[in-house]
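Data card: per-record layout.
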Amino acid sequence: MKLVRRVLVIVLVVAMALGSGIFGASELGGEIATLHTRAADGEAATRVWVVDDAGHAWLRAGAPANGWLVRIDANPDVTLERAGVTTRYRAVPVRDDAALRDRIHALMREKYTWADQVVSLARDGTHSVPIRLEPVEPAR
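The structure for this 140-residue chain is written out next.
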């Protein structure tokens, strides 16, 4: 019985350390932007990583069921706070382009280095979804 308890404690400690490490890496790894999405019950703010490629800002959802990605699917009009500037965008998930997904992974790895490696431990990159942010012109 003592052995089982020790094994459970070790497993819990390792899981908590891994979870804390992933959270810490995601917050300390580099530029963090705040994505504002909308749902029927109001607005949600999510801290995200962002990279630039081919004239667009890009986000990466680690899984298709990610809450902020589900909200984007329901309403693609978002705002992003980045470096003190808030910009309106139309978020466009790109699900069926493995080469693009791999490119966004590579850009994230280049920009966020060790933090991306740590965060990648918690997800299967083949299920990640890159999201292109297309600027929305202000209403006139």
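Known properties of this structure: The longest strand covers residues 85-93. The two ends are 71 Å apart (CA to CA).

See the next section for split statistics.
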